[in-house]
Amino acid sequence: MAYRWSLRGRVLGAASAGIVIAWLVSGWLLLWAEESQLWGIWALAGLAVVVAVRFGVEHWLRQHVIRPLEDITAALSALSFGHRTILGRYRLATLDDLARAVERVADRLDAVEQSVEHLQKVRSQFLANVSHELRTPLFAMEGYLETLLDGALEDPTVARSFLEKAHANLQRLSTLLADLVEIARIESGEMRMSFRYFDIAELARTIAQQFEGQAAQQTVTLSVNAPPEQLAYGDRDRIGQVLANLISNAIKYNVPGGRVTVQVEREDGRVAISVEDTGIGIAPEHQARVFERFYRTDAARSRAVGGSGLGLAIVKHILEAHRAPLELRSELGVGTVIRFWLKS
User: Fold this and answer.
1) Which of 222, 283, 280 minimizes the C-alpha distance to 247?
2) Tell me: the pLDDT tens digits for 278-333?
């Protein structure tokens, strides 16, 4: 406790020096006034005052400085071992501010600890999901290939069917790995965005054309409502990726004879882009989590229609990088609307 003796010694020394100086000045005044009969009283009174002041100052220091500092030091020591100590209110403003600062540090450490625990839980869940998603197509391919090697290869019809199924699972595995690499690059900051003005209306029409065949296969009508030209500010390729994921999901989770509409319009000085479908919809309890990695509202249907389970997570990360607000509205049996806004 070096600070304790240094502080106490300096304060007591200063107080004692002040009293001694005052005592000597009073003695000089007595000498000047030629009051020799008061020398005895002067000596005793001076000694008593010095002793009283010294004890008084030492008691004040112990109560108002040393003990609070010891409490704060003990709190910091306990905090270093992961324990919390409640600090009281102190009379000295500086010490009280220091105590409140220690408590703020403790609160911050608690928040960091909770965040680390949450990240560890997310990491464990993510690894479990990745393991499961990788295992499923691998096991399927292994089963098809083993069946072919066991003799099904001699039957051309069966062989072709099994090879097509193995190929489909291989494509699914390739898509999953590509999306994993993509989302890892986004989250690590390795993916650089190239922001510039581009024609979002033309981009929406181009992306929609790429899904016309998929929409026709599922008897879904795909349309784009957009002005001839509309400039938006962002990374054209990444926003194209967002549109592709949203349109693909809108078609996959639609119903026969359903519709998917891509809308581009100006709204409050920004460009609003929405993808609306008349599909199965999303239940309210799932809507807050559909943008999480590998989260599926209906696992069986999701795997049946394909996809990695990472598309909406990638959408969320890209739009966060653009600082683009994202909104989801959905109703079971009615459909889903996902809308985001870009600077214009």
Assistant:
1) 222
2) 988 888 888 888 887 776 665 544 454 455 567 888 899 899 889 999 999 998 88
Mean pLDDT of the chain: 78
122-188: CATH class: mainly alpha
CA–CA dist 107, 150 (Å, integer): 64
By three-state DSSP, how is residue 326 classified?
strand
CA separation for the pair 95, 300 (Å, rounded): 62
pTM above 0.70, yes or no: no
The whole-number pLDDT of residue 3 equals 46
Residue 267: count other Cβ atoms within 10 Å of its Cβ: 12
Cβ neighbours for 110, distance < 8 A, ≥ 6 positions apart: 84
Adjacent-strand bridge partners of 233:
197, 343
* Single-letter code of the amino acid located at 231: L
The interaxial angle of helices 311-321 and 236-252, nearest 10 deg, is: 150
Percent of the chain clearing pLDDT 90 (strictly above): 26
Spatial contact of 316 and 273, defined as CB atoms under 8 Å apart: no
pLDDT per residue over 206-248, tens digit each? 999 999 998 999 999 999 999 999 999 999 999 998 999 899 9
Which position has the token pair 């030629």? 34
Domain ranges of the chain: 2-85, 122-188, 196-343
Averaged pLDDT for residues 12-32 = 63
Tell me the fold of 196-343.
Answer: Heat Shock Protein 90 (3.30.565)
Contact 268/319 with Cβ under 8 angstroms?
no
Strands 221-225 and 259-267, sheet pairing: parallel
Between CA 232 and CA 271 the distance in angstroms is 7
Helical segments of the chain, H only: 2-33, 39-61, 67-80, 93-149, 156-188, 200-210, 212-217, 236-252, 284-287, 299-305, 311-321
Would you call 221 helix, strand, or coil by DSSP?
A: strand
- 38-44 CB contacts, 8 Å cutoff, 24+ apart: none
Cα separation, 326 vs 273, in Å, equals: 10
